[in-house]
Amino acid sequence: MLQDLDDRGLVLSLAAFAEDALGSLLREFMIPSEATNQLLDGFNAPLGTLSSRIKACLALGLITKDQYSDLERLRKIRNEFAHHWRHIDLASRSVAGHVIALSYGTLTNDFPETPAWKVRESLTSLLIALRSLTHQIKEKRWQATIRGTSLIAGFALGTFEEQFATAKSEFEALCAARDAATGEKRRFQEALIRRFGSKIGLLHLSCPADARKSLAELQAAVDSTIGNLST
After folding, report:
1. Percent of the chain with pLDDT over 90
2. Which CATH architecture has domain 2-140?
3. Are the C-beta atoms of 21 and 130 separated by less than 8 Å?
4. At what angle do helices 212-227 and 160-180 cross, to 10 degrees?
């Protein structure tokens, strides 16, 4: 299709293809969520433009610095064609420098004899690379992973027996406070119990063999209580 287009049609088409390819790459890499959809889709979406998608892909390590530079050159060439009704082609002064600076296509050994030829071969190679990476991310499950974490306070320093006794007393106190509370305060106490479920996991890291049964029983009681909490 690109072979039959004039310079303006070639540039605008390549820019549209690039915007779509970058959007697909970002969507495949990012965690599937409504937040991802809102970033990429709809009016005024933060990652809805060619410029923002180019920057996001570089920031996330999805494109190389050379690819970033070529995509930025494409964007600037696109802007020249899109914002001016006067005659302009790829040899015009306002875009010729960007064309010269483009990387050569990587899928052919032929020298590009014309600016249009260079633009077509350079950016076609780049777009195919983006599509290939998108496919690899899907097939090899290279998607982004959640790195966020929450901090919780552990138990006071001491022997395992001392920490276990503290944990048992704390759990009993949390349950009693939950039973005595109502409304928002009850929901707060339930949140503390859920947090305790993560906190007690710290004890497993230093539990001696002869205390594993007692810790398992406490863990089971905590898990059961959490399972019965209101959602």
Report:
1. 84
2. Up-down Bundle (1.20)
3. yes
4. 20
The single-letter DSSP state of residue 44 is: T
Composition of the chain by helix, strand, coil, percent to 5: 70, 0, 30
Instruction: Report the alpha-carbon distance of residue 45 to residue 161 in Å, rounded.
Output: 55
Tokens standing for 65? Answer: 């610095």
Domain locations in the chain? 2-140, 160-227
d(CA 157, CA 152): 15
Of 209, 189, 196, 195, the closest CA to residue 167 belongs to 196
* Two tokens, residue 95: 């875009």
Kindly state the helix (H) or strand (E) to which residue 139 belongs, with its residue range: helix 115-140
**CA 125 → CA 1, 20, 101, 135, 160, distances in Å?**
15, 15, 16, 15, 61
Tokens of 92: 């015009």
Cα–Cα dist 3/32, whole Å: 37
User: Taking the complete model, does pTM exceed 0.85, yes or no?
Assistant: no
Length of the chain: 231
User: Which residues fall within 8 angstroms of residue 30, CB to CB, at 6 or more apart?
Assistant: 36, 39, 143, 144
- Cα 104-105-107 angle, rounded to 5 deg: 145
Query: Per residue in 160-213, pLDDT tens?
Result: 999 999 999 999 999 999 999 999 999 999 999 999 998 998 899 889 999 999
Residues contacting 73, CB < 8 A, separation 6+: 98, 99, 101, 102
